[in-house]
Structures are given as C-alpha cells and as structure tokens.
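mind reviewing these tokens:
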Amino acid sequence: MSHQDAFEELATHNIKFLVLDVDGVMTDGGMYYTESGDQFKKFNTKDGMAIKLVLEKGYHVAFLSSGSTEHIIQNRAKTLGVERVYVGSRPKLQVLNEWCRELDITAENVAYIGDDINDLEVMDAVGFSGCPADAVEAVKLKVNVILTRKGGDACVREFVDEHLLDQD
C-alpha cells in the first residue's frame, strides 16, 4: 500500500487508540539473559518519544504482549505514561475488546502494530494495522502498512510520524 493509500485508509477509521505488541515491535525480539538468569530488554528511545507525542495528542496507548516479562514491560509503560498494559496468555483480541468497551470505542478506532502470528486476530479486527520490516510473512500479508524499520529500531516512531500523526 502506498503512503497516500495508507493515509486515506487510516483517515477513515477515526483512530483514538494505539495498541502495541512489545517483543519484536518495541524491542528487537531478542531474549537477553544475565549469568544469574535475569532477563532484560532494549527499548528504543525514539519509540518512547513517539508514544509520548501520541499521548500528548489525546490518544490512548496500550501495550499488549504474550511475553513473560511483565515487570520489564510494566516499568517501560510507567516511564512513558502508558496506563493499559497486558502481559500474559489470554487471547489478545479478548483483551483488546475489553479495553475498547472501557474506552467506549470500537476496534475500528484502533491502530495496532504487531509482528507475529499471534497478532493476526487483532489485525483482522482493528481499523488500521502496521508491522515492522522484519515481521513474519503472514503478518506482512495482512497489515495496511509494512514499515521500513525493524522491531526495536524506531518502527513505532516511523508509524506515528508517517501515519498516525500525519493525519492530524
């Protein structure tokens, strides 16, 4: 989809809520362990700034992860001012639908960035979706826009700058 086509598609959905997968989108998807077994992740500061910009514009933002590092993701969310976070094994679409009810919006008002097959169900439901350049092929076939940046390399910033806030 061209940039202009993506812009026109995005504009039709009155996006109010940006939902982000974490591993493979906000991080490079790598699993880093210390000798003592502690896990850590690297987040891109440009993505963090993009999230702050979106929040300042009045959008809602959430992290939706099927990973297992809840404390790391919760800490990142707190740092950025993201109030909705889910980390666990429940179906992502179920969690998203609950958030939409709480916000009195529909999934059509949601923009989502994901990178793997566990994101496909959400991508089918939302108004607009994107993926990092290194997403799996099944996701690339489903999304409205394939970003040029990889997960963990400011792909959220690209999505926000070139698509979400570009419509304001």
